[in-house]
């Protein structure tokens, strides 16, 4: 075999190894020609230490060959970047799924959960919200539409007051409303979100009384242990899952921060039924 043939074969092998090595580096968000040249040179030097025929290769010629190879097919770097992004997304989704699985009991089995829709539904949509969150207010009609059109959807609402002190007071009243069988929580929820201005204890007590609650009893109990414990559990769950805003949704293996269009929620619910995940593998 001629020296030139041996050199070209070796370069192809080195370049392939370099590209693969770059893809496996988690700290590299993008891949460029400089990185490829540097890695090839590093691998070439290691090979030169062990193989005499490679020792005389000119680094300038190697760099030129690498450059020509990449320029001959510029889409290589694009494909590498996409593959790296795909690998990172898969890893992130797995980490999130593992985290949700670890806190499954706190998410789905907490005695203080407000359950709407079909309690035996085949898909569960969880929402953590704040009564002073404008995006949460905007999501109420979407939640109503999803429950109306999907008889197999189970909805869990979790109080997560983080915006104002009024939010905390309203949530305390809401926790008591959720425990009161005489008051329709969903009616309370919708009417409280319909209030103008900042929502606090007065608005929450007024709506609860309108729906049949005892205002005096609610005022006496809103700062009690039951309401306090319920909110502390929500805060603890949010901390464990790194939730810092409202609304936050949980569907199956995915945590969704922020408001999302109803069609995206529909798609994720449909995917859960189709493949057991909010993102189904693409059909081959």
Task: Tell me the layout of helices and strands.
Layout: H1 3-23, H2 33-50, H3 52-55, H4 59-72, H5 75-102, H6 104-108, E1 114-117, E2 123-129, H7 134-149, E3 153-159, H8 165-179, H9 185-193, H10 201-210, H11 215-221, H12 225-240, E4 248-251, E5 254-257, H13 262-275
Parallel strand pairs: 2-3
Antiparallel strand pairs: 1-3, 2-4, 4-5
Q: Would you write up a description of this structure?
A:
The chain is an alpha+beta fold. The chain has 2 domains: 3-101, no CATH class; 104-275, Glutaredoxin. Helix content is 62%, strand content 9%. The chain contains 13 helices and 5 strands. The protein has helices spanning 3-23, 33-50, 52-55, 59-72, 75-102, 104-108, 134-149, 165-179, 185-193, 201-210, 215-221, 225-240, 262-275, and strands at residues 114-117, 123-129, 153-159, 248-251, 254-257. It has a 5-stranded mixed β-sheet, with helices on both faces. Helix 1 (3-23) packs across helix 2, helix 2 packs across helix 4 and helix 8 (165-179) runs parallel beside helix 10.
Main features:
single chain, alpha+beta, Glutaredoxin, 2 domains, 13 helices, 9% strand
Helix content: 55-70%
Biggest sheet character: 5 strands, mixed
What would CATH call the architecture of the largest domain?
A: 3-Layer(aba) Sandwich
The H-and-E topology, N to C, reads as HHHHHHEEHEHHHHHEEH
**Beta-strand percentage?**
5-15%
CATH class designation of the largest domain: Alpha Beta
Mean pLDDT: 85
What's the number of structural domains?
2
Q: How many strand elements?
A: 5
Strand order of the largest sheet: 1-3-2-4-5
CATH topology of the largest domain: Glutaredoxin
State the fourth-level CATH superfamily of the largest domain. Glutaredoxin
Q: Uncertain spans, ≥5 residues at pLDDT below 50?
A: none
Tally of separate helices: 13
Shape: elongated
Q: What structural class should be given to the helix and strand makeup?
A: alpha+beta
Give the N-terminus to C-terminus distance in angstroms. Answer: 42 Å
Rg for CA atoms: 29 Å
């Amino acid at each position: 075999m001629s020296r030139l043939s041996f050199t070209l074969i070796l370069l192809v092998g080195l370049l392939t190894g370099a590209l693969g090595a770059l893809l496996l580096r988690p700290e590299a968000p993008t891949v460029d020609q400089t990185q490829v040249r540097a890695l090839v040179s590093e691998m070439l030097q290691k090979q030169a230490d062990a193989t005499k025929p490679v020792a005389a290769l000119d680094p300038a010629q190697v760099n030129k060959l690498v450059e020509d190879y990449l320029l001959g097919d510029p889409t290589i770097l694009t494909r590498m970047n996409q593959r790296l992004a795909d690998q990172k997304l898969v890893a992130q989704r797995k980490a999130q799924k593992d985290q949700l699985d670890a806190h499954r009991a706190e998410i789905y089995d907490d005695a203080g959960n407000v359950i709407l829709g079909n309690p035996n539904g085949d898909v569960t949509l969880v929402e953590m919200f704040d009564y002073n969150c404008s995006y949460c207010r905007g999501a109420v009609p979407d939640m109503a539409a999803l429950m109306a059109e999907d008889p197999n959807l189970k909805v869990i609402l979790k109080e997560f007051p983080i915006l104002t002190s009024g939010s905390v007071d309203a949530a305390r009243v809401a926790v008591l409303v959720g425990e009161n069988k005489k008051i329709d929580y969903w009616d309370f929820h919708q009417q409280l979100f319909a209030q103008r201005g900042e929502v606090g204890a007065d608005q929450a007590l007024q709506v609860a009384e309108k729906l049949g609650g005892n205002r005096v009893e609610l005022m006496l109990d809103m700062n009690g242990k039951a309401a306090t414990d319920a909110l502390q559990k929500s805060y603890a769950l949010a901390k464990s899952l790194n939730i810092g805003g409202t609304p936050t949704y949980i569907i199956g293996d995915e945590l969704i921060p922020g408001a999302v269009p109803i069609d995206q929620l529909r798609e994720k619910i449909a995917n859960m039924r189709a493949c057991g995940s909010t993102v189904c593998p693409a059909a081959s």
